[in-house]
Amino acid sequence: MADKPNPQKSVKIAAGAVVCVESEIRGDVTIGPRTVVHPKARIIAEAGPIVIGEGNLIEEQALIINGYPENITPESEVEPKTMTIGMNNVFEVGCVSQALKIGDNNVIESKADVGRNVILTSGCIIGAFCQVNTCEVIPENTVIYGSGCMRRVQTERPQDHRSSSDRLHTRRVSPPGPEEVQRRA
Q1: For a surface tag, which of 23, 65, 114, 183 has the fewest beta carbons within 10 Å of its beta carbon?
Q2: How do residues 108-167 score in pLDDT, each as one tens digit?
Q3: C-beta of residue 17 within 8 angstroms of C-beta of residue 34
């Protein structure tokens, strides 16, 4: 009886990412630059690797899990599927995301739950407490909201969550320019 090879499990954190020590990261996980992982956030790669792109925000108690489907056990010989998360997504407090493919500029609000068979394109918002556990591709700029998980399409592209925080950060860190010094004088 041959032993199954045990693939190397590793966590790779890019320069410029901020990962709090109180977060839990297990399995083969890659975290891109400028991504922030808050305390008590959990990123679990059981059924395959997780690749998280640049500029994502993963808040407290958010759970991102690449788990096994209900009908498959960890002992089964299945090809691992990579979970891919794009850029500038926000995973708010207490949300759960099992989606294997997430594009860019999405928001999964507090306590929302996105299932494994959902593909989240770009610019989407999954509202607080909404559960989306269907086998579907959510079209770009879709907003799912309310107790009935109603849907609509945004007419404008959502604002990048990083733009306002970057401006604030730049203001605090950068020395004042010549015109700002003259105004203060």
Answers
A1: 183
A2: 999 999 999 999 999 999 999 999 999 999 999 999 999 999 999 998 766 666 554 454
A3: yes
Cβ contacts of 149 within 8 Å, gap of 6 or more? 127, 130, 131, 132
At 1, the amino acid letter reads: M
Token duo for residue 18:
């901020």
Q: In the numeric block, which tokens belong to residue 97? A: 């995301």
Superfamily of structural domain 11-157: Hexapeptide repeat proteins (2.160.10.10)
Residue position matching structure tokens 């499990």: 9
Q: How many residues does the chain have?
A: 185
pLDDT of residue 185 exceeding 70, the answer is no
Which strand (E) or helix (H) includes residue 153? strand 150-153
Domain boundaries, the chain: 11-157
